[in-house]
Amino acid sequence: MSPNRQNSAVHRSLPELQALPRPLYGRVESLPNRALTFRHSHPWVQLSYAIAGVLEVQTENARYVAPPQRAVWVPAGLVHQVSSSSRTEMRSLYIDCSVTGWAADSCRVLAVSPLLRELISAFSELPAEYDEAGEGGRLAQVLLDQLRVAREVDLVLPMPHDSRLQQLCLSLQDNPEQHATLADWSQLLGVSERTLSRLFVQDTGLTFRAWRQRLRLLGALTPLEQGARVTDVALACGYDSISAFIAAFRQHFGATPGEFFR
């Protein structure tokens, strides 16, 4: 079973906003249980950020995962679903498109610098209708400037459109520890291994092996953030040894699990 799918999620409510009270609007949420929204979209940009816990944004094309010090930028109009691990402290920013003309029209994961973290924290304490000509408005402008230069990070799992690959990927998401090879899947799906390999790269931009490894590593973030033993997480993700898991983790994230969450 996937290490981050052990508990059923509680659906959380969304703010019923007809319009934003200010071009930049903040919302604070404490989520004691694993929470999930229904699929929805906004006429404004959304930035989802957790100061504790792990957030995931799912779209038709990919899964975007944001552990602490990362945030997911969701463009206006994009249908998506947000889920979070238990004990998540979430900060959401809703941003009017009139002040994000510089932003790419795509969903992405952003690194949250120490300065950006403090700006988001300070902004979340302002009233919804802060003085745009005063301190609140100046803070909002600096926050937008920092979002503009925030670095994009590769915490994205692209999802295929081919129905055969979708069946394969859904099975791996439910049971990432399984060791079925591409040859095994080709027999099950009734397609040659070569064709399946080509479709994987064509549909996701990754090889089958690289996609499965990324799935496992992204799935490891939630239990690791919640304090699970590295040994248990490695086994749950399908790794035969801790050293192999740590080596793969370091190669993808640039740090060991302990360093990453410290």
UniProtKB/TrEMBL annotation:
Q: Which SUPFAM superfamilies match?
A: Homeodomain-like, RmlC-like cupins
Residues in domain HTH araC/xylS-type? Answer: 166-262
Task: Report the superkingdom from the record.
Answer: Bacteria
Name the chain's protein: AraC family transcriptional regulator
Record keywords: Activator, DNA-binding, Repressor, Transcription, Transcription regulation
A molecular function (GO) term: sequence-specific DNA binding
Source organism per UniProt: Pseudomonas marincola
Q: What is an annotated GO biological process for this record, any one? A: positive regulation of metabolic process
Q: Record's InterPro entries?
A: AraC-bd, Homeodomain-like_sf, HTH_AraC, HTH_AraC-typ_CS, RmlC-like_jellyroll, RmlC_Cupin_sf, Tscrpt_reg_AraC-type_HTH
